[in-house]
Amino acid sequence: MSQLRTLSATEVPSERLLLRKAHDADREGFIELYTDPEVQAYIGGPQPRSDVEQRFDAAIGTANATSRPGNYVIADNTTNRLIGTLMLACRPTDHPGHVTEDGEALELGYVLRRSAWGAGFAFEAATVALRAAADELPDQPVLVVTQTANKRSLKLAARLGFCPISTFEEFGAEQTLCTAPLSMFRI
Ligand SMILES: CC(C)(COP(=O)(O)OP(=O)(O)OC[C@H]1O[C@@H](n2cnc3c(N)ncnc32)[C@H](O)[C@@H]1OP(=O)(O)O)[C@@H](O)C(=O)NCCC(=O)NCCS
């Protein structure tokens, strides 16, 4: 079990968004994220709707989808509607791609509904999460791991200030490992 801490806040606001924990009303939004072929193109592929529905209804329960620390729904702060998810949590040490001796490091991940791409929402959500984490946690490297073919994700990582440092094979595709010091996000 990782000892690495992550953000403790259950809500993090920004200008247009609110990072918050999931509600039952987020069910349709989650189902769309897991079943949309474009959204899933570089993160495992779309899953059959019936499987996702079953997982949310029977096994997970929508409200538990973000119960782990560092896992958030990205919501529009005027409508409270789910537009995506963000994760800032320990990268499992048995996955390739490490920058610390013990293999423990915070990894940033982001997924937006297709209709929310191209408006800077992922950049805004990641920035506010990293700033809050930099305020709360000691300096440490943060990772973004993304398929090298996932140009939008690489562009976002670069815009946030992450530098690509290596590539490796995982899930049958080349992955790019990017890193940035958490202290870079302190304001
Ligand atoms: C990766 C992903 C989150 C990037 O979304 P995105 O909307 O392109 O990212 P950003 O929030 O940085 O938005 C950037 C775009 O918004 C535009 N934009 C508009 N208003 C903006 C604003 N106020 N601030 C910043 N950018 C703004 C930028 O010009 C840029 O446009 P472009 O796409 O034409 O270059 C999205 O493609 C996605 O969900 N992909 C599927 C999941 C995935 O692969 N995740 C990666 C796992 S590691």
From TrEMBL:
Q: Does the keyword NADP apply?
A: no
Does the record's keyword annotation contain Transferase? yes
Keywords of the record, alphabetical order, are: Transferase
Q: Matching SUPFAM superfamilies, A to Z?
A: Acyl-CoA N-acyltransferases (Nat)
- Give one Pfam hit by family name: Acetyltransf_3
**GO MF, any single term:** acyltransferase activity, transferring groups other than amino-acyl groups
Give start and end of each N-acetyltransferase domain: 17-187
Protein name in the entry: RimJ/RimL family protein N-acetyltransferase
